[in-house]
């Protein structure tokens, strides 16, 4: 299998001005490392505000101006600088955005899905392809001439998916594709992601919905306060096997089949994260130096208990 995306030690921070115009560096993502192969669905599972959309935007080169990005992002073995990201964005790498607000409220659906064309021929080809994809996703010809406000939530989602697929991407980043949808539309959307992976497309599924991740992902990358704390095989998670990090175990214990067991404390917000292990405040059996030193992600786990060389 060919590795499509390689994210190595990526950190994202923001300069913020506090009282008295003091500068403060707010780190939102720290040392993030993950990879995706062709035909694989990797879910990044994290709570709201943990930095998931920023990860998507970092890969696509659409971070806000005040964001500071460090680390390395490779696509097909080549390092992506800002120029390269702009060149492949919307072509080889496509985004299914988190919000249907990405649709222009004043433009007819087909016009905005097709976008700008350099020649009439290009426009005609795109129109044919757009219709084909819309048909595949159950969007009738009437939809072409509709405005976004005329679409149901499920239809708008399908339009966003179709837009992402128009360029035959090799990698799709689906940012929270299911919230706000009814059960049927959720199932349908997840099936579309599966179909994409069956067509050998790599899918980065960004979600806070553990059920969505368990339903379709091959592997789950567990995000905690902007840190990847463990990457597990979905099969192992379903069986409760080989789950090493206490937070991963806590997520498993909180599943309905395990009686919704809750863990003390809450995930620290950016700016409140302990100096040592980000999970220190909630860990039942920390080591004596866990409060002072930061564990690295080694062999897919970020915990000193499994990384003795630290
Ligand atoms: N332009 C910005 N300036 C300063 N801080 C920002 C900016 N954009 C995002 N942040 C910070 O980064 C955090 C993570 O944002 P992000 O949108 O990636 O979260 P998320 O995990 O996608 O959340 P959600 O599940 O709600 O979509 C935010 O909580 C906010 O603190
Ligand atoms: S590094 Fe230490 S505090 Fe963090 S999860 Fe492992 S044992 Fe607990
Ligand atoms: Mg988000």
Overall description:
The chain is of the alpha/beta class and 310 residues long. It has one domain (3-92, 167-306): Rossmann fold. 30% of the residues lie in helices and 25% in strands. It is built from 10 helices and 10 strands. A hairpin with a 3-residue loop joins strand 1 (3-18) and strand 2 (22-37). The chain is globular and about 65 Å long. The protein starts with a strand and ends in a 57-residue tail after the last helix. The model has no long low-confidence stretch (mean pLDDT 91). The structure holds adenosine-5'-triphosphate (ATP), iron/sulfur cluster and magnesium ion. The site of iron/sulfur cluster has 12 residues, from loops. Magnesium ion (MG) binds next to helix 1.
Outline the secondary-structure elements.
Layout: E1 3-18, E2 22-37, E3 41-45, H1 52-60, E4 67-75, E5 78-79, H2 82-88, E6 93-96, H3 109-114, H4 120-136, H5 141-144, H6 153-165, E7 171-175, H7 183-198, E8 202-207, H8 210-216, E9 219-224, E10 227-233, H9 234-239, H10 246-253
Parallel strand pairs: 3-8, 3-9, 6-7, 7-8
Antiparallel strand pairs: 1-2, 1-4, 4-5, 9-10
Residues 246, 277, 279-280, 283, 286-287, 290, 295, 303-305 line the site of iron/sulfur cluster.
For the record, the CATH architecture stands as: 3-Layer(aba) Sandwich
Quickly count the helices. 10
Counting helices, strands and paired strands, the structural category is alpha/beta
Question: What small molecules does this complex bind?
Answer: adenosine-5'-triphosphate, iron/sulfur cluster, magnesium ion
Written as H for each helix and E for each strand, in order along the chain, the element string is EEEHEEHEHHHHEHEHEEHH
Number of distinct beta strands: 10
Query: What oligomeric arrangement do these chains adopt?
Result: single chain
What low-confidence regions span 5 or more consecutive residues with pLDDT below 50? none
Q: What fraction, in percent, of the residue positions are helical?
A: 25-40%
What Rg is obtained from the alpha carbons, in whole angstroms?
A: 21 Å
